[in-house]
Protein: DUF3618 domain-containing protein
Organism: Geodermatophilus amargosae
Amino acid sequence: MPRDPREIQLEIDAARESLAATLDHLAYRGSPTRLKAQGRDAVQRFLTSTAGKATIGALGLLVTLVVVQKVRHRRN
């Protein structure tokens, strides 16, 4: 028994809407602006956390020690 053309059209329209929603979701997830903002926010959260502050402090100490060692090595 052949299908009703209106029923076929409704299925096509539903599939088209579903595909459009999927494409919109993918475009949102892959948006460079959104990803940049999300990354920036994650870095800011880390740097203001206790672990982030400790990491920055340790990195600063390491850089200071390397610079002092280089200066002492050049003087010798």
User: Anything to note?
Assistant: The radius of gyration is 29 Å. The CA atoms of residues 27 and 74 lie 55 Å apart.
